[in-house]
Write a structure and sequence with these properties.
Blueprint: E1 18-24, H1 27-37, H2 42-45, H3 47-51, H4 62-75, E2 83-87, E3 90-91, E4 100-111, E5 116-125, E6 128-138, H5 142-145
Antiparallel strand pairs: 1-4, 2-6, 3-6, 4-5, 5-6
Length: 156
């Protein structure tokens, strides 16, 4: 389901480089997120309650969808060793149980002197944008990345 780890250093990044994760949202994902966070809002957990809302059915937590961005940042772009600095989120539409979310993260800007990358983040269900925003991350240079256990083949 989730991609294998990919270790990139700052020097590997270019504007336009992107990574996509595809995840179909299961009821168990939403229930698990509720358990971990304590957010037991019935719009996420009770079909009976959710049927009486404008959505008509259960929806995933917005921050669960956003956490899929974190999965991309921590595993693929830029990957292990990157430090999340900030994230903006715009929730555009609900994500329902059974929806397949495409999470696209793209390098939008690089600041070499600070080893920072601004990443455009978009989550779509079909052609509809359900969440967008941007993340800032600090990315280690090759000199630090080569010292990583992942770089030495210790991953897995």
């Amino acid at each position: 389901m989730f991609p294998e780890l990919r270790l990139l250093c700052f020097e590997d990044l270019t504007v336009g480089l992107s990574e996509t994760l595809v995840k179909t949202i299961a009821s168990s994902d939403v229930v698990g997120f509720a358990e971990v966070t304590g957010d037991r809002n019935p719009i996420h957990l009770s079909e009976h309650f959710a049927a009486r809302t404008p959505f008509g059915t259960r929806i995933a937590h917005g921050l669960y969808t956003a956490s899929l961005i974190s999965a991309v940042l921590g595993t693929r772009l830029p990957g292990p060793g990157a430090v999340y600095i900030s994230q903006t989120l715009n929730f555009r539409a609900p994500v329902k149980i059974g929806d397949t979310v495409h999470v696209i993260v793209e390098v939008a800007e690089l600041i070499p002197e600070r080893r920072r990358a601004r990443l455009a983040c978009t989550c779509k269900v079909g052609e509809e944008v359900v969440l967008d925003g941007e993340a800032w991350v600090k990315v280690p240079p090759r000199s630090e990345t080569e010292k990583s256990p992942l770089a030495r083949g210790a991953a897995g």
